[in-house]
Amino acid sequence: MDPILLALIIIVIFVVVFFILVYWGFYNKIIRMENRIDNSWAQIDVQLKRRTDLIPNLMETVKGYMKHEREVLENVTKARSAIMNAKTPQENIDADNMLTGALKSLFAVAENYPDLKANQNFLNLQDELTNTENKIAYSRQHYNDSVLAYNNTIETFPGLWFAKRMNRKTRDMLTIPEAEKAVPKVKF
Amino acid sequence: MDMDKKLLVEDQIRRNKRLTIVVCTLMALLFIAVIFAIGYIYFRNIYIPLIFAIPIALIYVLTTYSFSVKTVLAAAKARPANPNNREEKLLIYKVEDMAIASGLPKPKVYVQDSDNINAFATGKKPEDSVICITTGALRKLNSEELEGVISHEMSHIQNRDILIATVTIGVVGAISLIAEILFYSMLWGGAGRSRGKNDGNAILIIIAILFVILAPIFARLTYLAISRRREYLADSNGAYLTRNPEGLAKALEKIKNDHPQGKPKGSKTVAPLYIANPFKSMSVSSIWSTHPPIDKRIEKLRSM
């Protein structure tokens, strides 16, 4: 066979294989990044649920000590019900904000009850709640990081080309509620 | 942390990753150059030594990589963190936080009873990894400083630094072994083949011999350069995870001013994964250090 023809065939084969590998690589990368986003979204919900689940135990522990702080305690219980009954994502976010505010008030008021502050159960719950607040903040951060990395990949070249063929759109990042912006991460 | 600051940190991360590739390529080129030099001196053919050099390198790397995490932890006299102790419970929480922030599985948390402020990470892959903090660190660092240290170690795990360190050490060992084999075989008459042949090549042979003798030194220096670069990367990546470079900066300051009592524990091979080298005085930092100078690290963190 003519050596030039052979060389050309080999080159074409290499080019085709190269493109197949690149396509394979990018396809997988886009899928992996989307899964990461979904996973980090689920993680946020896990942490939010953890927080809601801690409330009954907290209520049991404080109600003996804070008998006269009815409004503060009711606000927490109301917020928790709102979360359980929330149907839309917006309702969820609003109820979540309500709970954050109610808990802040509760712990501020608890400062006036030295007996309560000495209660080991209360202290453990306080640690747990602070821990959950931190985890909520970090899982939101991770969600935003995953979305940012994904958007960067599908908006820059060559990812852009693959995204168009796979019909992928950029995702939105979470906006942190105003209340949390002030104290993004809670210190122990 | 606003968008501008975030970009600076990401730029640093990218720069550190790029420089790692540069230094690793240098290491690979060094390895190949040693092979060719040996081939030229001994066989007059630069490709022949690849036959034995590549298996040696592979065996070295695989052996170094087959370290057991249990052995490392035992050598460091580390124990699992105790959730019933509030300090250690909070430590576990912080490690979990960093796992969430980085998207990695949660590493096991161990504690080393020591007055030093220090921490290390080990493990062959993120699913199997361990972070260990000293009780000195738990006692002397506050919440944000501890978070900075943990995020630095988490970054090592995220960036596969343990893997990179062991492979690099393996290649350094292989280069040294190959150079040694050649040296001793020449000593015992191997180079006699060149006698009687074209003497103009003698100069090239001498250069090649010198090169082979110096190669292990160059290899070690390259490994140390890689190690320092990965430390900067762990610093910048850690700052990104916490969005708070000041935490780690303050922790490094405390480490710098810390005068611990008692000898540091742990095996020397794991030393590079410590946040600060426990075996050397802090004021001595040169091309022979596994860690960059502490002041420079603090400066870089504060400029983010």
Kindly describe this structure.
The complex is a heterodimer of chains A (188) and B (304). Chain A contains 7 helices and no strands. Chain A is rod-shaped. In chain A, 81% of the residues lie in helices and 0% in strands. Chain B has 304 residues and is mostly helical. Chain B has one domain. Chain B is built from 10 helices and 4 strands; from the N terminus they run H-H-H-E-H-E-E-E-H-H-H-H-H-H. In chain B, strands 1-2-4-3 form a 4-stranded mixed sheet, sandwiched between helices. Chain B is elongated and about 70 Å long. At the A-B interface, helix 1 and helix 5 of A face helix 4 of B.
Rg of chain A, please? Answer: 26 Å
Could you tell me how far the N terminus lies from the C terminus of chain B, measured between alpha carbons in angstroms?
10 Å
What's the oligomerization state? heterodimer
Can you tell me the overall shape of chain A?
A: rod-shaped
Strand content of chain B is 5-15%
Number of strands of chain A: 0
Q: Determine the structural class of chain B based on helices, strands and strand pairing.
A: mainly alpha
Helix content of chain A: over 70%
Low-pLDDT regions of chain A = 178-184
Q: Which overall shape of chain B is indicated by the principal axes computed on the Cα atoms?
A: elongated
